[in-house]
Automatic annotation (TrEMBL):
It holds the Pfam family rhaM. InterPro entries: Dimeric_a/b-barrel, Rham/fucose_mutarotase. The lineage of its organism: Bacteria, Bacillati, Actinomycetota, Actinomycetes, Kitasatosporales. GO terms for molecular function: racemase and epimerase activity, acting on carbohydrates and derivatives. Gene3D superfamilies: 3.30.70.100. GO terms for biological process: rhamnose catabolic process. This is L-rhamnose mutarotase.
Amino acid sequence: MQRICFLLKVRQDRLAEYRERHAAVWPEMLDALSASGWHNYSLFLREDGLLVGHLETEDFAEAQAAMAGTEVNARWQAEMAGFFEALDGVRPDEAMKPLTEVFHLA
């Protein structure tokens, strides 16, 4: 099982709305994530907009590809794109670059 951690930056003026959206993630999005192999997925948001994501999956590239192939993900990413800084023209899910794990206590 791979443990994946990534960082993104939520725009300061949209923090409250970002929290609201994630308090009510669409049920079909939750189903798609689970079916695509995303497990123990968490998002942590700091007051300055730093977003830390963590998930576990058998193969991150496969899990991303599986989600990219769903219609619900396309809709979700289109709605979420405006919340983030510095996406450089890519969707939020394409901007998730895993950090290198340097320590883990099992």
